[in-house]
Structure formats: C-alpha cells, structure tokens
C-alpha cells in the first residue's frame, strides 16, 4: 500500500522561539562585555607611553583606584577623599581576609590621569601600602608610532 503525501499536510517548524532565544543570548553577552569597562572612568585620561603594553593576563584579585587630573580619588565610580579611601581599603582588606587571602595577594591597579601630580600618585600608593597592599600595576595608554 502506498502512502501519498500531499503538500497541504506539510509540517514546518516554527523558528520564532529559536530566533528569540538567539537575540536574548546576544543581549546577555553584550551586557557581560560592558562589565569589563566598569573600572574605567571617563574622567581619567591616561598618560601615553611607548613602553606601555597590555597586561599578560587577567589579574586574580584586582582593586582599581583612580586619580583624576585635579587630584580627586575615584574608587568604585565614586569620588572619595584620601581618608575615605583608607577606610575603604580597610574594608577590602577585611573582605580578603574572609576569603582566606592577604592584602599582599591582591593587585592594586592605579589609573592616574596624565595631569595628576606625581606626588599625589605616590600618596595614593602610600595609603595602599599602609593597609598591607604590596603589588601595584600602573596603567598607561600605549603610544603607537606609525
């Protein structure tokens, strides 16, 4: 016995849910990508350097501290004074201790504006050192010569 297939009984899959899920995944990954720039502040214009190079890899325990051109400290996207920074670093140290780490294992990423006074950058590093932080990474913009 032969079964005849007629074109009116043709079943097609609905691709709408698959397309919807694809767009949701794209939006999800776009949001994740934007989080990597959360530690960068537009008020900071990094100095240019021929010796600057990208980091070798991600830092395991980063703490980003930024210094504007008019010597204001930016920590977690908030303007803070040096005294407030000291208390925030104490909190960071306590959080590290709860996770079984010492401040010496964390890396303080210093992003200082090109017009920030060098003495203020040194003061910022000194405040960090007073709280037990030992490893620092200074950020600069790579100067590309053509």
Terminal residue distance:
78 Å
Structure summary, number of beta strands = 7
- Unreliable parts: none
Order of helices and strands: HEEEEHEHEE
Share of β-strand residues: 15-25%
Question: Would you tell me the overall average pLDDT?
Answer: 82
The CATH architecture of the domain at 48-142 is 2-Layer Sandwich
Tell me the major beta sheet. Answer: 5 strands, mixed
Overall structural class, as computed from helix and strand content, comes to: alpha/beta
Radius of gyration: 25 Å
Task: Give a structural overview.
By secondary structure, the protein is of the alpha/beta class. It has a domain at 48-142: Nucleotidyltransferase, domain 5. It is 34% helix and 18% strand. The protein has 3 helices and 7 strands, in the order αββββαβαββ. It has helices spanning 16-35, 82-98, 118-130; strands at 48-49, 62-67, 73-75, 78-80, 107-112, 135-138, 141-142. The strands form 2 sheets. The chain has a 5-stranded mixed β-sheet, with helices on one face. The chain has a two-stranded parallel ribbon with strand order 1-7. Strand 5, helix 3 and strand 6 (135-138) form a beta-alpha-beta unit. The chain is elongated, with a radius of gyration of 25 Å. The protein starts with 15 loop residues before the first helix and ends with a strand. The model has no long low-confidence stretch (mean pLDDT 82).
């Amino acid at each position: 016995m032969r079964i005849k297939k007629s074109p009116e009984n043709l079943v097609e899959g609905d691709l709408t849910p698959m397309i919807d899920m694809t767009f949701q995944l794209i939006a999800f990954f776009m949001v994740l990508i934007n989080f990597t720039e959360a530690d960068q502040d537009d008020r900071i214009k990094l100095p240019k350097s021929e010796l600057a190079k990208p980091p070798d890899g991600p830092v395991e325990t980063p703490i980003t501290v930024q210094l504007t051109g008019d010597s204001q400290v930016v920590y977690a996207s908030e303007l803070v004074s040096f005294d407030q920074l000291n208390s925030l670093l104490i909190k960071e140290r306590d959080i590290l201790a709860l996770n079984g780490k010492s401040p010496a294992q964390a890396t303080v990423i210093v992003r200082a504006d090109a017009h920030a006074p060098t003495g203020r950058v040194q003061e910022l590093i000194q405040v960090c050192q007073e709280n037990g932080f030992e490893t620092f990474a200074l950020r600069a913009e790579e100067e590309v010569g053509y």
